[in-house]
Amino acid sequence: MLTVVKSHEQLAQELAAEASTVMLLGALDTGKTTLARRIARAATAAGRVVGMVDADVDNSTIGPPTCVGMRLLKDPEQVDEIAPADALHFVGTLSPSRLVLQQVIATASLVERAREAGADLVVIDTTATVSGVAGETLKYHKMELCRPERVVALQRGSEMEPIIGMLQRFFSVEVDVLPAEPEVAVRSPDERAAMRAEGLRRAFAEPLEHWRVRPTVFAPTLPTGLDLERLDSLLVGVHDGNGHCLGLGRLEHEDGTLRVLTNVGEGMKGLRLGSLRLDLETFETKPVSLREVMFGV
Known about the structure:
Helices cover 31% and strands 28% of the residues. The chain has an eight-stranded mixed beta sheet with strand order 1-8-7-2-6-3-4-5, with helices on both faces. By secondary structure, it is α/β, with parallel strands linked by helices. It has two domains: 2-182, P-loop containing nucleotide triphosphate hydrolases (Rossmann fold); 190-295, no CATH class.
């Protein structure tokens, strides 16, 4: 069923009172995060516990870039200071279309963790990848695994119509279509890059430590005979022994020794390789192919 609602505030109040899982869709600067906060603020004010899942791996408001983050909210005051995350899931890229499987699993995993932690309402703030095969594939599989009973599509013009049509053909879900939030500022690519760099800078805030690591601690497993120097500057997810991401790290190779630089080394059991190299002076990233890094192809 398709519902058109003109008032963002009216819909936020309705979802805050009635919904259990809401997924927000929209391109860049359409107001997904603004609406997510409206819903969370209204729900917590009414005494509900909200699990906010931010799946924007490029510019997350909860966790660092390259991660999906989840925050459990019980008070309206927490909505404005939504970081840091209560749980992270490392994806390892800034472009969800590059690693669709990892992105979908990360989102679904944190939706489930929010429910297990006692959330009455889960709000999923998705990425801005909404067009073409990559966008539709990403949103289709998120719907499959997260199973929201309400979807909100924010759009300028009619760019969301293909995804809306697809969801209505394949899923029994109520879709609300709203125009883009008029008060949301449109950010330039340079502004987004600066926000991304600041998010990574916070993820590598002091105190940082160097931890020597063995080649056996990685996922995916390193091939036999790999020149470990090829891993230098790769971004990694630091994981405990329970499948949870503790934060980010950066691999450093020097004098035949491989180390990870991180501020979350306590409890570290394994490292997940990302698909980015990180410059710790500028906090700029460069995408890489793990297949090329490990196999030269």
